[in-house]
């Protein structure tokens, strides 16, 4: 008998492209049927057949304090009762901006948008407008949303689906996009020698979460800062994923390297659609209406989304809350390592705050995109399905990071580690 997910997926495919609204959800790289979810609470989600899973996807990052947190639900409900959108300024937008600025001091001014893609798109336009230059530089395996100019050697679903770039992106649009290997500062220096005075921006995921989870080497980020300073290019940190995760203050808080601009998304909306672009006031004020670079959005700064983000960030910024989730992440990885070792499975793990990566490889370290690509993909697929069956939900791709929330507790940990012990034994 077909389970509910199979039935629902068959039906969905009649109406939605590939049965999904975001390519990465389709289980293409792991095979099988995507599991349809119907509710979440804390660290747990429940599928349409009533089966429970410990969730390490957390909507691909946003749910830093877990599913349906009472403070978030209350904030959204209270706000919705007064109307859902005005197309006029609201106090909530300034409130969220103030909280974000308090957490990330590099941000002096902020523009709310509706997704991480929009934040990155606007970052590129603003950097080009501000510097009067056209070239941008990005890294192999980094993903910055489905922005035409940035769909070059991108990570996440672009990797998973094996699409090299994408049809529909004219060559003329990517002509001004340079790419370099991640964590290779010498390659960047060489590009700057040739193109330095024409580069508007370097975009980087300071902790990459779209080639699995690969933190930048500290000297790589410092090197980028120096090259940008010397050449007048904007350093743009794409902290859509690492923001409020790599540390509460994001990767910039963790590494102590200050970008000119920061793209945010995911946690800033606490599970509702929000992205944001922030940075130095002088640069940000180049955006309309104070400056000439156009940017706008009907639902930007939406009250429900602001309320959800505010409730999430206020909770997460209370003393020790983020630190506890980080400590829990460390215990998860140590537990997985111990069980993999006992089963004779070579496993490399990465942690950046509440983001993590699991790599089935006997290589000593995983630093570049090529290192990720060489991991045992077939073993990952068996691990993924084994854990899914055992009630543990990881992203259905070896190129996605894992996430922990403040709601993950002892029960979730022991459920996960017991499952891993059984699954490692079958690999
Ligand atoms: N940048 C990074 C680093 C991301 O991880 C993502 C999404 N996974 C994006 C940008 C795009 O964000 P969105 O999906 O909200 O458009």
Write the layout of secondary structure elements.
Elements: H1 4-15, E1 37-41, E2 44-47, E3 52-55, H2 70-80, H3 91-103, E4 109-113, H4 116-131, E5 135-139, H5 157-160, H6 171-174, E6 177-180, H7 185-195, E7 199-204, E8 207-208, E9 214-215, H8 218-231, E10 234-238, H9 250-255, E11 261-264, E12 275-279, H10 281-284, H11 303-316, H12 321-342, E13 348-352, E14 355-359, H13 369-373, H14 377-389, E15 392-393, E16 402-403, H15 410-424
Parallel strand pairs: 3-15, 5-6, 5-7, 7-10, 10-11
Antiparallel strand pairs: 1-2, 2-3, 4-12, 8-9, 11-12, 13-14, 14-16
Helix pairs in contact: 2-11, 3-11, 7-8, 12-15, 14-15
The structure holds 4'-deoxy-4'-aminopyridoxal-5'-phosphate.
4'-deoxy-4'-aminopyridoxal-5'-phosphate binds at residues 60, 115-117, 120, 143-145, 156, 205, 209-210, 238, 240-241, 265, 275.
């Amino acid at each position: 008998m077909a389970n509910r997910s199979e039935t629902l997926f068959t039906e969905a495919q009649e109406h939605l492209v590939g049965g999904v609204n975001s390519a990465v959800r389709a289980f293409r790289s792991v095979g099988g049927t995507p599991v349809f979810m119907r509710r979440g609470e804390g660290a747990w989600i429940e599928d349409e057949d009533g089966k429970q899973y410990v969730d390490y996807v957390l909507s691909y990052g946003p749910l830093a304090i877990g599913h349906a947190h009472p403070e978030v639900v209350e904030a959204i409900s209270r706000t919705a009762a007064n109307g859902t959108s005005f197309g006029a300024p609201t106090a909530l937008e300034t409130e969220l901006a103030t909280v974000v600025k308090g957490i990330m001091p590099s941000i002096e001014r902020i523009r709310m948008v509706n997704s991480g893609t929009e934040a990155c798109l606007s970052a590129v336009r603003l950097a080009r407008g501000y510097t009067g230059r056209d070239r941008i530089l990005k890294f192999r395996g980094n993903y910055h949303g489905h922005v035409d100019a940035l769909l070059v050697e991108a990570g996440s679903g672009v990797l998973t689906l094996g699409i090299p770039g994408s049809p529909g992106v004219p060559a003329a649009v990517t002509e001004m996009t340079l790419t370099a290997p991640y964590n290779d500062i010498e390659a960047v220096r060489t590009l700057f020698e040739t193109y330095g005075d024409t580069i508007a921006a370097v975009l980087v995921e300071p902790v990459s979460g779209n080639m699995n989870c690969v933190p930048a080497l500290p000297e790589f980020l410092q090197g980028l800062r120096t090259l940008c300073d010397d050449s007048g290019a904007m350093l743009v940190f794409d902290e859509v994923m690492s923001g409020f995760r790599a540390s509460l203050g994001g990767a910039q808080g963790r590494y102590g390297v200050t970008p000119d601009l920061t793209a945010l998304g995911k946690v800033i909306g606490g599970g509702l659609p929000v992205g944001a672009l922030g940075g130095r006031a002088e640069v940000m004020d180049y955006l309309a209406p104070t400056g000439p670079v156009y940017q706008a959005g009907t639902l930007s700064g939406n009250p429900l989304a602001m309320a959800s983000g505010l409730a999430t960030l206020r909770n997460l910024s209370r003393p020790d809350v983020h630190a506890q989730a980080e400590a829990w992440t460390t215990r998860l990885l140590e537990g997985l390592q111990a069980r993999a070792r006992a089963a004779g499975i070579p496993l490399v793990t990465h942690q950046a705050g509440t983001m993590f990566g699991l790599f089935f490889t006997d290589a000593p370290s995983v630093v570049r995109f090529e290192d990720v690509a060489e991991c045992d993909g077939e073993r990952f697929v068996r691990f993924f399905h084994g854990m899914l069956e055992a009630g543990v939900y990881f992203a259905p791709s070896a190129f996605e990071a894992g996430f922990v929330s403040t709601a993950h507790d002892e029960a979730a940990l022991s459920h996960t580690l017991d499952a891993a012990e059984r699954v490692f034994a079958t690999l």
